[in-house]
Design brief:
Strand content: under 5%
Distance between the termini: 71 Å
Radius of gyration: 18 Å
Number of domains: 1
Number of helices: 6
Shape: globular
């Protein structure tokens, strides 16, 4: 069992290094996440991919939700879509080892999208408040 764990760790590290050093995409990936997103979002995706590859799916999702709650970014919707696409690509055994089911992935994806919408609404409201404060200062 520990040999399997170490092999997943090595495979995960090799995958991340191939992404970083060679800009190599896994042949199973049909989403090109290297598009117009920030370096912070690319770094987040690389970390999420690594955690998935080493079987730490719950930790990856926790990190994603932490980022969604605390770091506004225009690239986060793409990060969410790519992350859940990667999870849906996993076989059932890998998901079970990671403590997830396909139904849970669908539910969590919906929660992430809802949080994105809530954050976008909050940012819009904050922008409106700033505009009102600036106009009040001008008077």
């Amino acid at each position: 069992m520990s040999d399997d764990y170490f092999m997943r760790q090595i495979r995960g590290i090799a995958d991340v290094l191939s992404h970083l050093l060679l800009s190599k995409q896994d042949e199973k990936e049909d989403i090109c996440w290297q598009s117009q997103i920030s370096m912070d979002d690319r770094s987040l995706l690389t970390t999420l991919r690594f955690l998935i590859n080493v079987g730490q799916i719950g930790e990856a999702e926790d990190l994603l939700f932490e980022e969604l709650e605390h770091r506004p970014s225009s690239g986060l919707p793409e990060v969410v879509e790519v992350f859940y696409h990667w999870l849906l690509q996993l076989d059932g055994r890998t998901l079970v080892r990671g403590g997830f089911s396909r139904e849970e992935i669908t539910q969590c994806h919906g929660d992430a999208v809802a949080l994105l919408g809530k954050n976008r609404d909050r940012q819009s409201a904050d922008g409106l408040l700033l505009d009102k404060e600036e106009k009040a200062k001008e008077k």
